[in-house]
Amino acid sequence: MFLNEITIVITTFFSEKKLIKCLKSINGKCKVIVIENSKNNELKKKLNENYKNIECIVLKENSGFAKSNNIGIKMVKTKYALILNPDTILAKDALHNFLTCASQIKDFSLLGPYFQTGKEKKFEKNYYPISVNSIKGFAMFLNLKKFNNIGFFDENFFLYFEDIDLCKRVILSGNKIYLLPNVIINHEGAKSVNFKDDEELEVNRNWHWMWSSFYYSKKYKGFFKSLIFFSPKLFMSLFKFIFFKILRKNNKSKIYQHRFLGLLNSIKGNKSFYRPKIN
Fold it and tell me: What percent of the chain has pLDDT over 90?
């Protein structure tokens, strides 16, 4: 197994517990770069003390998934990079199978695991790669030389759609994406953040989901088509904000308020500026 050909990049935000579990599933000979967004210098200290293969970069501010991954990717000196979420666990042969397929498929830009939990439909005999138009962002295997012209993640996205956008640009550029049926990576999904204020996280998710949805649509369909499609969502969010405010259901009111504001700011062309408030 040619582990000197791959570097794993993991972006973290209050993810220490999940990250440690993830790292235990990674071969200790594989280079790992952790981009830490929650200013956890103690995490960096722990990683430096316990792992020789890990480099941890603590950012001065929460930069989001796209920009953080780009910072990590630009530090990679190997042929391939594997973008991982911290709430993932690799099967023992996952890296081996990734690298084996990478050596056999000459024209790929992105590879992704077919099995997210190991419970999907099994392939009885053959494990042929499957050509697809997109893969999920929790585990993206990049053939780095293919991205010289494509570029990496669009840093205008703070949260959501950055992986979909990258896949879209890969396909539009005439490059290939494959799912690998023999690669298993367990992914909990939306469990990477261990943050005490669940309400604030939910508000953050809703703001960015709406902002990113419109930005992505505008990028590929144009402003006016996107505005026509999203106008009902804008007014419905405003209506529900007012409705739940009247009923004094403050949690729901706050969520719809931020859905409205996220979409409104995206329509106005404002940057994706909202950040979770940390007390």
Answer: 86
Cβ–Cβ < 8 Å for 241, 256: yes
Which phi and psi (to 5°) does residue 130 adopt? Answer: -115, 120
* Residues 6 or more apart in contact with residue 1 via CB below 8 angstroms: 27, 95, 96, 99
Residue whose C-alpha is closest to residue 266's, from 213, 224, 206:
213
- Which portions of the chain are predicted below pLDDT 50? 118, 123-125
Q: What's the per-residue H, E or C state across 32-55?
A: EEEEECCCCHHHHHHHHHHCCCEE
The tokens describing 145, both together, are 């030389």
Burial 220-257 (b: 16+ CB within 10 A, else e): eeeeeebeeebeeebeebbebbeebeeeeeeeebbbbb
Q: How far apart, in whole angstroms, are the C-alpha atoms of residue 211 and residue 267? A: 8
Contact status, residue 137 vs residue 85, Cβ threshold 8 Å: yes
In whole angstroms, what is the distance from residue 102 CA to residue 143 CA?
A: 8
Per-residue pLDDT tens over the stretch 227-272:
999 999 999 999 999 999 999 999 999 999 999 999 999 999 999 9
Task: Note the pLDDT tens digit of each residue in 111-146.
Answer: 999 865 545 555 444 578 999 999 999 999 999 999
- Whether this prediction's pTM lies above 0.70 is answered by yes
Cβ partners under 8 Å of residue 51, min gap 6: 23, 28, 32
- How buried is 119 (Cβ within 10 angstroms: 0-12 exposed, 13-18 middle, 19+ buried)? exposed
